[in-house]
Amino acid sequence: MEIVVIGMGYVGIPTAALLADVDSFNVTGVQRRSKRSGWKIDHLNSGKSPIEGDEPELADLIEKVVRKGSFRVTDEESVYADADVILIVVQTPVDTNNVPQYSSLEEVSQSIGQYMKKGVMVIIESTVAPGTTQYFVKPILERLSGLRAGEDFNLVFSYERVMVGRLLHNLQNMPKVVGGLTPACTERGIDFYKNIINAEIYPTDCLTAEVSKVTENAYRDVNIAFANEVALICESLGVNVHDVRSLVNSLPHDPSNPAKNPYRMMHIPGAGVGGHCLPKDTWLLRYALEAYGKKKVSTNVLVESRLTNDYMPMHMKELIEEALETQNVQLSEARICILGFAFLEDSDDTRNTPALTLYNILKPICREVIVHDPYVVAYEGVDLTTDLEKAVKDRDCVAITTRHREYRELKLDWLREILATPVIVDGRNVFNQEDALSAGFTFRGVGIGTDTKQSKKEK
Hints:
Helix content: 40-55%
CATH superfamily of one domain: NAD(P)-binding Rossmann-like Domain
Mean pLDDT: 95
Low-confidence stretches: 452-459
Distance between the termini: 45 Å
Strand order of the largest sheet: 3-2-1-4-5-6-7-8
Order of helices and strands: EHEHHEEHEHEHEHEHHHHEHEEHEHHEHE
Radius of gyration: 24 Å
CATH architecture of one domain: 3-Layer(aba) Sandwich
CATH topology of one domain: Rossmann fold
Shape: globular
Structural class: alpha/beta
Number of strands: 14
């Protein structure tokens, strides 16, 4: 079977590698030779993984399938002509007005339509606004190919449930939702994914699958916003949100009667929400309602939650300014070091990172702002370094936005000596407040009131 995976990112690469490890599957990855990502083509073809950070087994699998000859990467669109299955895994961002931008999806769909053969199965794994498969992609494919979806070719939406740091594990072991344009499309999609999925596969239609995807992420976003709002309340009242969270989550789950005693799972508050999906999926869900819904429905809970999470980098700025004032340092004269640029700990994933928002807030108003990250080597427009000592030396404040292992292992005595001004603003509960105060720091943390005596680390 000839398989094409379009988009060599955090989903496309591990998906392609897993498929290429299946006997009788030949996989071609397609990646544009853009200035930002074109280097991945030669990198992958040499058997190397472009994904840095802690990503178990992925590098070994890529090396294996490249050596076996079942996986290669190209920028040639002509490979679509021979494909039996085509997976679309391109980015689908929203603009400043929170409207989905489908330029990449449209371009890819047009190219597929020009080359695709009868009998091919086209699968969309990109996160899209509900209705996109049927009302956006399908017409393009049909118009340019002259074929009928559901009759001459199969069209499926089947979303990923990956998490950086667990890419291969989640792809293989998380339940898979497969939504076809028709029941026959769904059945063929299920048969295909059985080759790499060890968990249950749930059949549905493409619209229901699309709604399920964005709802999953909106649900998580709302829960994080709740935790962030409680954190702000805790700061005001002078208690520690992490103590509160620990106690809330102590309510046991009683499997003998779950409806009578459901467990609590308060999320972790912090400096902001990043990643490709959470910051935009609420807007995709609302867009679908406005574009295809039959009647108006209030989305206040979803929208206000999204705005709460967007506010958290600004709150970090407020905590930094407050902490510096206790040391008689004005924000305009401060030299700030932001610790962590990836949105997720121990990864190099910078998509929609709240650290960039904080950097852009501080850069115009501070004397100097530098960012450290052990995994992110460069980012356009950001003063970034992987040298921790260089990053923190003679700074007036360190602001922690990512819970990297390197920061969790930092010695407070060393940090106290190398900083010009002993200020820590902790957006990820890396340090114990009492330890920081004992070491001579001015300390502020998201959700940690200044009157509290103890601060528990996440376990």
